[in-house]
Structure formats: C-alpha cells, structure tokens
Amino acid sequence: MNVKLWTIAPMIGALALTGCQTADLSKQTSQTIDMPTVVINSDSDGDGVPD
C-alpha cells in the first residue's frame, strides 16, 4: 500500500497544480463599443426654460 501511495501522489500533485494555473491576460485585447448619443430637447418653445 505504501508503494502505491508514493507512485500515485506525484500524479495527483501534478494534476492539482495544473488546475491552479492562472490565465495569461497580457495577450487579451480590449473591445470598444460605440454607444449612440441621445439628445433630448426639453425646451420645445426655445425660451431657455425647460418645459
């Protein structure tokens, strides 16, 4: 039983460390989304006072 544990333990450790790797975020690019500009005219009669 002790021999099997020494044979299997490094494999389990390697699998555990493989699952803990972090992603390399330096190669990712950002994405820009152009949002439309909405203009609301709240002064319909043009006197400078909102409706």
Describe this structure in words.
It is a single chain. With 51 residues, this protein is mainly α. Helices cover 35% and strands 0% of the residues. It has 1 helix and no strands. It has one helix at residues 2-19. The longest helix is centred in the first third of the chain and has 18 residues, at 2-19. The radius of gyration is 31 Å and the shape is rod-shaped. The model has no long low-confidence stretch (mean pLDDT 75).
Gyration radius, rounded: 31 Å
Number of helices: 1
Main beta sheet strand tally, sense and closure: none
- What's the average pLDDT? 75
Total beta-strand segments = 0
Tell me the β content. Answer: under 5%
Secondary-structure map with pairings?
Blueprint: H1 2-19
Give me some keywords for this one:
single chain; 51 residues; mainly alpha; 35% helix; 0% strand; rod-shaped
